[in-house]
Every structure is written in structure tokens, then in C-alpha cells.
Amino acid sequence: MKLSSGLFITFEGGEGAGKTTLIEEIYWKLKGTDLDVVKTREPGGTKVGEEIRKVLLANSNPPISPYTELCLFLASRTQHIVEVIIPALEQKKIVLCDRFNDSTIAYQGAARGLGMKKVAEFCSFISQKLEPHLTLYLDIDPKIGLKRIKRSRGEKDRIEAETMTFHSKIREAFLTLHQKHPGRFQLLDASQPPANVLADAMVHVQKLLDKHYTYV
What we know:
alpha/beta
């Protein structure tokens, strides 16, 4: 059996939710079944994107306007889509992406106050209406997530260092997106042990694979 098309799976969540760990585990599980998998992230994923990432996350930079922040995230994304995501999907690969449009809608649209609907429109335009086949949202109380960051590496980046109100708005926005897109946007309880989160995630991933397998 082979995949009939490329698959685009995105991973969303607040700070410290465990996205990076989950993506790594799923990547190696899929690689172990001889599937062609690409692991990438936003902002980043390309040379241009990684340079933009440094600007966005550095605490040493002067304050960044919410509008500038939005434009930087979208600039990284459009390069990422053209250079990495679309070519991989055209080759029928599975793309695992750490953050995509939903993060921008939650962070810049809701938490920065630019408006979820308006930011969603910008995201749709920039991404050429590219939609994930599946989004795995790791839901966690932001207080717990930020404590995890403090335990693991101590220092916070510019966005992690925002107020608890800011992070609470992000969670509320993600839960709204979950309600709005119940088919694509699957909620995982990220307060569970990592093994449990992985098991829950793989149920959704396997369902997606089963829909796109073809016999050759």
C-alpha cells in the first residue's frame, strides 16, 4: 500500500504543551513504517524563515508592533509553503509541521487583539488557502505549560515571557478553533504523561492514513 496523496498534519498548542516531543515521536513512528515523512516548524523551516524566527523570539530586540509581528510570521510562512510544504505534498510525502495558521489566529488575532477573523483572512491569502488534513491541538493550562518551560530550560523567549492574560487568551482562541473545525482540529489532553498523549495522537493519525492508503 502507498499513500494516494501527500498529507499535511499540523501541531498546535500553547507554550510548554509538548508539541516538539510529540512531533519527534510521531515522526519516528511513521518513518519506522517506511513512509516518507518531512518534519518542519514555524516560524522557520527555511533559511529565510529561521532568520525571521530569531527576530521574533529574541528578548534583546526593541518592542515589535503586533502588525509587524503578524507580517513577520506570514513572511516566514509563505516562504515555507513554497520551498518546503507544497513540494513535499506534491511528492506524496507526510508533512509534520510545528504550528501553522491556527497559531497565528490565536496569538496575533486573539492575544494581540488584531481580530481572529481578519487574521484568518490574511492567513488564507498568504497560504494560498492551503489547509491541513489534520491538526493535533495539545491543550494545557498555560500555568502548567510555562512551569514546564521553567523546569526544562529556565529562560523564556519573547513570546513565552508574555503575561498570563496573554497566554490565557491563546488557549481560549484555540478552544474556539476546535469548536469551529471539529473534523480537522482534534484536541489532546497535554496534561497527561507523554506516552498517553502519543497514543491518543496516533489514533487520529492512523484514521487519516487509513483514508488515504491505496493498493498498488
